[in-house]
């Protein structure tokens, strides 16, 4: 009544103005409401802390009913290639394992063949901000163009919290046991991919506790000068509804040293290490050491080191000297045998045991007072963890990971050092294939020295260390049978013999077994001492020793080849070679992409004799860096492992 009375008092013109104003406001409000529902996520990025009013989910689901299903895999399939203008990489990662279920596995060797399957998300996931792909409710009539339109128009950033200049490749090595949603549309769908080293792609993400839920949008301004053949693409589910499991197909990702170098450079330029909650004098010492390493005096001739083996011999030498002078390590006494403090010195996983034995017995680096330590070592054996706790044929390793989580919770409660950095100044050394899974989440910020150095399984180049997998036949004499024939007496072009683990080795035999007299490519050799000696003699007599991956990316043949002075030929996409941060693997090895197996002989024959001789010399020179000794020697495998842990910590630390 009050409003009506006031209106009657107004003049004719004033009434018309008032009605027009009210109508305009009402129209604007209705228009805004009509736009809000389908574009809530986009509007969210404009509001503080991403807060928007809740609304009915039906509109959200309707937007996503444009494709029947999308199956995606790891973005490192693109390597570190960049994206052309208006292209995009969409990624959602939920760093939470789904039940710990395991696919097929070779029980005898403890080698894991996990399927890396995406699991559909439920309604609760949608409420928490997950985008659901691969849902049976999605329209079956959608075309591939709809998918492109859907990816371009519907998927938007879930948050705008930057992660300290992270790159696409920072997140590309997220673990494979959670839900991975990372893919790129094929070029013929209208989105081109280019490969350009100069670009620096940025991303935004949001992290909450153990669950890392991210939708990442990447774009670049590069001209499409070179189209990259995609290793991973959106795979449309067939009308039958059957999906190929990841364990049934090769992972498609980076395979070249060039791509790995780019990742390393990016991680060095933009460290992702968490800043300590409070700084210490030891942190400042490490920061000072970094400055000294970066300004290291140039080394021209060194009697102990062979310069061509190293990325930068001057920096390596200075870093090693500083490590010897100042590094102090505290070894936790917590944990009981046999999982803790009981090294295994023989067999396939001996590297973790030898390091444990030599580290715990070391008097130069180890301190009894944790307040004096720069780094903290957690001395557990991933091999003994599997041996002790894994229930045979159970296909479930959740209890193994829980055991290590309980351990980290214990030391975090008992000591204040873990909580200071969330474990960033702690390290572990583990050689079993399952170690990446067992140490996920609760040890995610630690420096991990792993034999299974797989960039698609959580290995972070520049933070983690690729641990050489050394098959030790004699714990008393780890150097037995060391050495090989000189180059002039190596008449076999290439040699391989071994079990048919994984998908790659059968392909190798398909193309080269009994196909060429110069290519000695075999399956498993007959058991027995004579067979072992025959295997060793073949490696000692071959120019190149083929090192294909098995179930996982790592293989003891890489170190065996160096041990017997044979140039290693690594065929294992996504594998980061040992001590990658300091060694130049191009100086003493060949890395062949898995897809190039049919051209293997041509690749090897195309290498000039002079180049082969240089590489073979490099193998002999690098050999001392891959040897275990009962009493550690300077620059040996123990010291190289510790140095890489130290070196990566130096280049990861950040202070306020």
From TrEMBL:
GO terms for molecular function: glycosyltransferase activity. GO terms for cellular component: Golgi membrane. Residues 100-121 are annotated as: Disordered. It holds the Pfam family Exostosin_GT47. It comes from the Eukaryota. It is a single-pass type II membrane protein. The chain crosses the membrane at residues 18-39. It is found in: Golgi apparatus membrane. Residues 327-605 form the Exostosin GT47 domain. Its main location: Golgi. Keywords: Glycosyltransferase, Golgi apparatus, Membrane, Signal-anchor, Transferase, Transmembrane, Transmembrane helix. Belongs to the glycosyltransferase 47 family. This is Exostosin GT47 domain-containing protein. The lineage of its organism: Eukaryota, Viridiplantae, Streptophyta, Embryophyta, Tracheophyta.
